[in-house]
Amino acid sequence: MGTALALAIAATPTADGTLAGLFKALTSRLGGDAEPLEEPAVQRLVERARAGDRDAAQRLYRQQVDRVFRTVRGVLRSDAEAEDVTQDAMLAVLTSLDRYTPREDARFAAWVASVAVNTARRRFRRRRPELTATGELPDVPDESAPPEREVDTAREREALLRALADLAPAEREMISLRYGAELTASEIAKLVKLEPANVRKILERTRERLGARIEELLQRTGTNL
Amino acid sequence: MNDTEVTQIWRTLEPSGRQRARIEDRVFDWIEARETSLATEWLNLIRTDPLPGLGFAAMAAVSLLMLTPLGWLASSVLR
User: Measuring CA to CA, which residue among A185, A1, A77 is closest to residue B13?
Assistant: First the structure.
């Protein structure tokens, strides 16, 4: 791991060659703030970012970016689209912090997820894409993982994307909010304007179908979870 | 497949290191550009590469002046 990390850093060109550039490159490859923060800490970061604190904005960004990508990737048809939508959504989040109103019944992550889903919906309206998810392999393999695990991960990813393609858009959106954004049924209910009990039922039903389809696809390729 | 298993398999949708770096660069470059005034951009350009920078900045200033209603107004007054 240490060698892989050192190689990753060494191979990373930093625009200014400074320690800050090196830190940026390192945190990007590690996934930013690996440890998720508690809601009060996130709210403090929001306050600092609103006041113009650049470090706070970056930490806030790193807390949310993977979650946003996982959410929109479940909804959209390709990695490239998910990348574009994540970028647009994170820009919207960081430049609209003034419009965010903290609420006791919804975490900051729920607001970020609503921005992400709305950005993805706008893309649907513009392009009306055929939402077939293709099982693309990750473009950069995780050097710390042994090759067999890497292959298994790629197969699991492909199975998940194929299974998601079989779902209706509304189901795909809700299941992505549940497992990508890691929102609760109540938080999702507010976003999709349904009763929490209905959302729970839909999620349960969708998870069962999705799970069965994934298992079927994995059996065909000989991967065990 | 239970809740935990679906959560676990969803982790395979994480962005790769390259994607993560690309998104972060674009987002923060955009924010930085938004926060930097046009005059500062030009001064930086001149500082980095004085001769071509000065040329580009002068061309940009002339275009900006000629292509805005204020520029048309000024040129018509001067004529």
Answer: A77
Q: Exposed (0-12), middle (13-18) or buried (19+): which is A40, by Cβ within 10 Å?
A: exposed
**Contact residues, chain A, for B23 at CB < 8 Å:** 65, 69, 83, 86-87, 90
Residue A61 binned pLDDT confidence (cut-offs 50, 70, 90) = very high
From chain A, pick out residues whose CB is under 8 angstroms from the CB of B24: 24, 28, 61, 65
- Mean pLDDT across A88-107: 90
Does A11 have pLDDT greater than 70?
no
Q: Which residues of B touch A215 (CB under 8 A)?
A: 1
Count of CB contacts below 8 A, A vs B? 104
Average pLDDT over chain B, rounded to an integer: 84
The complex's ipTM? 0.73
For chain B, the residues whose C-beta falls within 8 A of a C-beta of chain A are 1-3, 5-24, 26-28, 30-31, 34
Exposed / middle / buried, residue A112 (Cβ in 10 Å: 0-12, 13-18, 19+): buried
Indicate the pLDDT class of residue B57, thresholds 50, 70 and 90.
confident
CB contact under 8 A, A70 and B13: yes
Chain A residue numbers with beta carbons less than 8 Å from the beta carbon of B33 are: none
Backbone angles phi, psi at A76, to 5 degrees: -95, 170
Task: Check residue A185 and report its DSSP letter.
Answer: H
Cβ–Cβ below 8 Å for A29 and B22: no
Query: Structure pTM?
Result: 0.71
DSSP state of A143: T
For A103, phi and psi rounded to 5 degrees? -130, 145
Choose among B19, B73, B25: nearest CA to A139. Answer: B19
